[in-house]
User: Fold these one by one.
Assistant:
Number 1:
Amino acid sequence: MTFSESINTCLREKYAKFEGRASRSEYWWFTLMLWIGYAFFGFMAVYSMGIDQFGNFGEPGAIGWIFIVCGVIFVLGTFIPTIAVSVRRFHDRNLSGWWYLGVIVLSNVPFVGFAVSIGALVIMALKGTEGPNNFGADPLATSNAEIFS
């Protein structure tokens, strides 16, 4: 799956779809887009504030507020698709999506959260189960029916 296909899938086709499975490429391309967006809006908001000679940030001007508002809209607009693609990625590993809720809760516990976050990162990076599992067909499998039709 390419970058644009992944973004299209996560933001249009499966915006709030928690069923099914997501391939590694779908998850990681979408995550890359998120981090690029966060970095862009964050950098532009901070850059527009300026820094005085003492290292203090100034007040954001009109352009700064535009970037802040656009950044907040970006975060709120991608909140549900981020959870959805993460749940589908857990499904690809044949794990219930409720485990993702456990990751979110436990990641807020000091010291435990670091280990849980590393574990979630590993789960997201591992290859999904081959063939169909409890949550649907393999997203990377090619169907022979499509070849011969």
Number 2:
Amino acid sequence: MNLGILIVEDDREMCRFLSELLAEEGYEVAVVYDGPSAVEKYRQESFDLTITDLMMPRMKGTELVQRLKEIEPDALVLLITAFGSIESAVETMRAGAFDYLTKPFRTDEILLSVSRALEQRGLRMELQRLRKEIQSRYGFENIVGKSDSMRRVFEMIAHIGDVPANVLIIGESGTGKELVARAIHYNSPRNRNPFIPLNCAAIPETLLESELFGYLRGAFTDAKRDRKGLFHEASGGSLFLDEISEIPVNLQAKLLRVIEDKEVRPLGASRGEKVDARILAASNRDLDQLVGEGRFRQDLFYRLNVIRIELPPLRERSEDIPLLVEHFIQKFSGKTKRRVQGLTEEALAAILNYHWPGNVRELEHTIERAVLLGKEEMISGNDLPPQLLNKRAKEGLLEEALSNRYTLKELERIYISKVLETTKGNKTEAANTLGVDRTTLYRKLEEAKTKE
């Protein structure tokens, strides 16, 4: 389908020239000779670009721009003027025009301006499409569940979208904390602005401050240029701080100051800069306990815990498992040529009886593996990992430990090794599963090396 251009010009010779030129370039062209006719035409049809003269008898081009913007806020207008003064240029751009050209102009000039305007329109439409796609993907209706506990989560997400308060999301690893955070963002007035996620446990302590707050050139040895921090990047939108419990105590004080003052001071700067980012924080650890132990600041906890959402582990909402299985089968079926229709009774029983320590994330990986590696239309027990199939497989490690009389240290070392196998070497995820911080995990791995 060709792009449509509306030409508005009281000089009929200029109209003929522009319409013939643009038609030869493959555009669909409509012509009117004054502003009121252009407004009426625009109400009846949709145009990708309007080209209008600035000075016309019944309506000036600047007024026409304003009227078209009332009909379509994203209306794209290119103004032509014989008065190539600074004043007319300023007036044109203030009216909301994309660009202006002064008469007389060359053929290549008008074609270039038209091309640039339509390119911007294409980019704008693509951005709108992507925004709709993202909002659809992360809408809270895509968080699967029918249990009472999940219904309460859905109601909370819908309720707090318009509330500009910080949110703390609590739940075990794999329960979907980031998905909930994205749903909150994309169902809020901030959804046209960035959602910036940061896993606080994945960034070394020495880099976390500069990552959050930014720095100026020369602030430290490797600071070759100024860099905006994530608070700046998320300004107007939401900053998701996952594993907030892993932020060092000395940095917690600076984070508290930013939240209270809504002002960030980059490393090396002498004064702060205003930011406006909604904080969505998450943790798989008990922050109340960490506050009691003095490992997390109480005042920062209160600032983050304005609204609290607690995500239940999968083992406590087993009625949601069949829905989740169906959702994941549909999600991954497009990656294989065979049509997967569901689970055998054996496979469903195994999935329902399993305790799912890795929660929804573990279930998703299990179904993905079964869909991609299975050969039949129905997922059977042969397509599932062995630990799901029988109690003996689940208790294999304990039986081995008892028969070989392992010490607690030896059992711990073996278990850590098994967890690292399931996380494919991801130490951050392994630490979350084990319920320890990364420092403790690294120390235990070093201890295991020295004993080998």
Number 3:
Amino acid sequence: MKGAVFMGEREIAFMEFPDPTPGPDEVVVEMKASGMCGSDLHQYRRPKAGAAVGGLPVNPNPVIGGHEPCGVVAAVGSAVNERQARVGARVMVHHYKGCATCAHCRSGWSQLCQEVPVTVYGNNDHGGHARYLKVPAFTLVPLPEEMSFEVGAAVSCGTGTAYQALRRLKLAGNETIAIFGQGPVGLSATQLASAMGARVIALDVSPERLARAKEFGASETVNPRSNDPVGAIKDLTRGGADCTLDTSSQPAGRLAAIRGTKVWGTTCFVGERNEVTIDVSPDMLRKELTIVASWTFSWAIQQECAEFIVDRRIPVEHLFTHRWTLDEAVEAYRLFDTQTTGKGVFVSF
């Protein structure tokens, strides 16, 4: 089979790999949709000698990209029972593997495993940008019949990440949240927060993305290049937002998120990489500010997110502005790299 591999320095190579065969506890999933996530750009842009994202262990061999896989079970291993997986089942993949026995792994938080180097499918092991993907059976998450494969791909990382961040913030319907960055994760957060009843202030430096944020339920939009973002948030609220969420990964965005939050408010960071320097007394202590981090989601929360979307009929499919064949991966990531578009997804392999 052919797979798309991130080579670094904005280069993608198409390589031939053997069709996978499942081991006893594994399954092979035939891809129906494989999403493009903002964190893919870290691998796409990295120096060719660079490490994997977030200090994860580096695989010295070529690795197929794509960590938003969704498809149909094509084969199961000899030790996999019907309750775990069956051929033909519609599934998403929780794209992590740890030791499988520690408390974090057993509670569905494999990415937090402290016992072994964590496998991240699409990062340091093969992902969904190919026709087939082999994973442990325990990584499979049922895809609701009412949900398309494309939406399932979004839930498998970007949209699921936004959902868990809102859970970490304990967002309430009577609150105002300012969301920094309106890429795939930020736009998902805008859509989900609006569905939860919250008032959303969306911030981004792209006018195109701000326009989409309005379509997805943002009450107000702010362009930090045209306005002081902290001042704008305070003008739109009674001294600051109840919650702020930074998806931009930019130091300036993170600092503005902290300073745009009201007294007793909560700030959440989800973007990978970079740093932020704060003045502890005015930025935190004298506001009784809570700062939390959120790294994707657990197996159970991925399923909960899917059910939330189905139950409330949230049109997550509107996130997608581009649908591609795998052969078009070079052009797809070249366009995605401009960070002015919506979400892209591969639907033909």
